[in-house]
Design goal:
Elements (H helix, E strand, L loop, with lengths): L1 H28 L21 E5 L8 E6 L4 E8 L5 E6 L2 H13 L8 E2 L9 E7 L2 E7 L5 H15 L4 E2 L3
Parallel strand pairs: 5-7
Antiparallel strand pairs: 1-2, 1-6, 2-3, 3-4, 4-8, 6-7
Length: about 170
């Protein structure tokens, strides 16, 4: 009888820790401080973000930052290493600019590209991008050997988003 109680007790603890881990993971995906407060723009955006772009570090002095564009046009930039602007900043983009970004993604067939472009080179930076719109969400990790259209698109996102007027946020 004690054997069954131990199994039941172990099973209950395992299920509860899995539930808590799922809740913790869900908490990582949505930061309530960064949630948009305005009505979303009707671009068929299917998630809590519209565009996400991350440039990762390398063994040298590669710029490292993230840019997140929310459905209402709110943009959050977090500068990490080797960037002009370190810390957390906020800006906005227009619905027209969001449509332009989505049109460019469609033009290069972003949603049909591979999920990962990589090679056995560990000391170069990666560019991670996510676009979520029109019932689709696509994440691409591009470290090496990505198609030129993807590289150009990611540089286009850099140009359009890094060139915004930024307001520092309290950290």
């Amino acid at each position: 009888m004690n054997y069954y109680l131990y199994i039941l007790f172990f099973f209950a603890i395992a299920c509860n820790s899995t539930k808590n881990a799922s809740v913790a993971e869900a908490g990582k995906k949505v930061n309530t401080e960064e949630k948009a407060t305005e009505e979303p723009i009707d671009l068929g955006i299917t998630d809590s973000i519209f565009v996400f772009l991350e440039r990762t570090i390398c063994y040298g002095e590669c710029p490292s930052y993230t840019i997140t564009v929310y459905p209402d046009g709110k943009v959050i930039y977090v500068g990490k290493e080797f960037v002009e602007r370190k810390g957390k900043f906020e800006s906005r983009i227009s619905s027209e600019k969001m449509k332009e970004i989505l049109d460019e993604a469609k033009r290069i067939n972003y949603f049909q590209m591979q999920d990962v472009y990589d090679a056995y080179i560990t000391d170069i930076p990666s560019c991670i991008s996510i676009i979520s719109a029109e019932g689709q969400q696509k994440k691409i990790m591009n470290r090496a050997e990505g198609p030129e259209e993807l590289n150009q698109f990611q540089r286009y996102l850099d140009k359009e988003l890094l060139g915004l007027e930024w307001k520092a946020l309290n950290q």
